[in-house]
């Protein structure tokens, strides 16, 4: 039975980059997303996996705890094991508003999807892993399971016209620390992958702005990030080769987080 990875938002953008790389590494992958099953994407992924039964798609929202239970149970029923959760699904605010004007509706939507969603999906996933695992005699040398939270450079960098997004990602950084500490004695490790600016649908509307910023030296590496750059980081972290590390933050931002003079 292949190792099993759950990738929220694994149908598009960064999540699709992650799904592809985990399939290449032999994982069975289940995607959670809100859109109708994307037949073309699933066909490509099943071809990449070399087996139809190594890819599943659950339609639901990470903002809805009832969908968490359904999503995790679907993978357990299909494959009988859980190895990796990648909390990737996320949204930008529908409108970028100065925080002097921004309303509560956008705040609640963004935090519900970006923070409350992964926080409680982690709880459901971890409980299911513990049920499948049974009692531990001693902490094993390799992780029992790995959780990766996709946050953002916005966890620590302010944008005063999308405060809700920044707060949601700062919350994801804290959630990573909380879950890393709570799950360490259970053999489950938790990491945060913190992307900079990645070319996806989310950033398609601000291409010119970021083209200019990259040309002006915003990041030491003068190019946009790609979903495959984030996928590569996740692939590395879920291999279980750093079993005595948890709560780590791994930047995928061309060096943007480095303070420079
Ligand atoms: N692009 C960047 O520059 C960048 C930088 C830093 C961090 N990030 C983070 O990286 C993650 C992925 O971003 P992206 O750029 O790939 O965005 P994207 O292209 O807009 O894709 C977002 C993904 O999340 C899914 N999704 C959205 N709402 C959902 C919900 N309620 N329940 C389940 N799935 C949902 C979408 O699928 P459906 O539409 O089918 O629901 C889609 O797969 C996000 O957490 C984002 O904050 C992005």
UniProtKB/TrEMBL annotation:
Keywords: Oxidoreductase. The keyword Isomerase does not apply. The keyword Oxidoreductase applies. InterPro entries: KR_dom (IPR057326), NAD(P)-bd_dom_sf (IPR036291), SDR_fam (IPR002347). One of its GO terms (molecular function) is oxidoreductase activity, acting on the CH-OH group of donors, NAD or NADP as acceptor. Residues 3-194 form the Ketoreductase domain. It holds the Pfam family adh_short_C2. Belongs to the short-chain dehydrogenases/reductases (SDR) family. NCBIfam families: PRK12745.1. This is 3-ketoacyl-ACP reductase. It comes from Cellulomonas aerilata.
